[in-house]
Amino acid sequence: MLTLLLIVLAIGGLLVVMRREAGAPAALVVLGVLGLVGLLLDAEVIGVLLLIGAAAVAVAGLPALRRKWLTPRLFATFKKVAPKVSATERTALEAGSVSWDGELFSGKPQWEKLLAFKDEGLRDDEKAFLANQCAKAAGMCNAWDIAQERADLPQQLWDYLKKEGFFGMIIPKEYGGLGFSAKAQSMVLQKLSANETLMVTVGVPNSLGPGELLLKYGTQAQKDHYLPRLSDGREIPCFGLTGPRAGSDATSLPDTGVVCKQTINGEEVLGLRLNFEKRWITLAPIATVVGLAFRLFDPEKLLGDEEDRGITLALIPRDTDGMEIGRRHHPIGSPFMNGPIIGKDVFVPLDTIIGGPDMIGQGWRMLVECLSIGRCITLPSGATGTARYALGWSGGFTRVRRQFNVPVAEMEGVQEPLARMAALAYISQATVYQTANMIDHGEKPAVPSAILKSQLTEFQRVLLSDAMDVHGGKAVTLGPRNYLGIGYSANPVAITVEGANIMTRNLMIFGQGAIRCHPYVLEELAAKDTNDMKAFDKAFFGHAGLIFGNAARAFTLGFGIGKSSVPFDGPATIYAQDIARLSAGFGLCADAAMASLGSALKKREMISARLGDVLSNLYLTSMVLKQWQAGSKVEGEEALLHYSCRFLLQRAEQAFVEIFDNLPNRALGKTLNAVVMPTGRRWNKPHDDLARDIAKRVSTHSALRTKLLENTWDTDDGEQRNPLARYNALLVDYDRAEAIYRTLNKAYAKGELPQTALHPEARVEAGLEKGLINEEDADFMRTFEAEVLEMLTVDDFAYDAFAKNKSTLIDHNGKTTPAPQQEEENVK
Question: Which residues form the Acyl-CoA dehydrogenase C-terminal bacterial-type domain (predicted)?
Answer without folding.
Answer: 515-797
